[in-house]
Amino acid sequence: MIHAKMKGLGLVCGLCLLGGCVNVNAPSDKIVIELNINIQQEVIYRLAADVEDNIDANPDIF
Amino acid sequence: MMKRTKLMLTIAGGAIGLALANPAAAMFQRDPAYEQARANGQVGERMDGFLGVVGNQPQAIVDLVSDINIRRRANYTERARSQNATIDAYALTQGCLLIARTQPGEKYQAPDGSWKTRTSAPPERDSRCPPM
């Protein structure tokens, strides 16, 4: 019984070596990863008031 | 009488305190060389919140620009942190407002990357910029 199981396992492994059980093909299309690096308008609107204060407080560098 | 004197002293103390609290930086204005370079159109406001050298300029102008940009970067880093924003987002917002504040004759960078001379008309700015 155990022997039969081992045989089966051996067969599966053999198939793995021969054909490759898991075949992963790289897609032909370009993979585009969209990182969230876009600066959103809402962020700019939120920061505007602090930026106004900053410009007024540091006239030597602006 | 005593109460009144105390009150007066408190008011006087408050006024002195306010005067001292006013940051020293606010008392400094633009360096005359920087002011002149702006008026001459040798430097301009970039979209990204930093100062740019317009065309080929003497080394003194290039140095002036990099000095101001180092100080701007330090300032943006600190302000962005207090606002929980990225430095780039803070700097871009600065660019919007600094371009909006340019005076006629000064240079600024348009969204296509080219240098423009500010006129009395509103400047060309990034579409994300808040209204002037």
Automatic annotation (TrEMBL), chain A:
Keyword Signal included in the entry's annotation: yes
Pfam families assigned: Lipoprotein_19
Keywords: Lipoprotein, Signal
UniProt-listed InterPro entries: YnbE
Signal peptide residue numbers: 1-26
Keyword Lipoprotein: yes
Protein's name in the database: YnbE family lipoprotein
Source organism per UniProt: Alteriqipengyuania abyssalis
Lineage per the UniProt record: Bacteria, Pseudomonadati, Pseudomonadota, Alphaproteobacteria, Sphingomonadales
From TrEMBL, chain B:
Residues in the signal sequence: 1-21
A Pfam family it matches: DUF1318
Keyword Transmembrane attached: no
Region (Disordered): 105-132
InterPro entries: YdbL
Superkingdom assignment: Bacteria
Biased composition (Basic and acidic residues): 123-132
Keywords: Signal
Name by which UniProt lists this protein: YdbL family protein
Organism for this UniProt entry: Alteriqipengyuania abyssalis
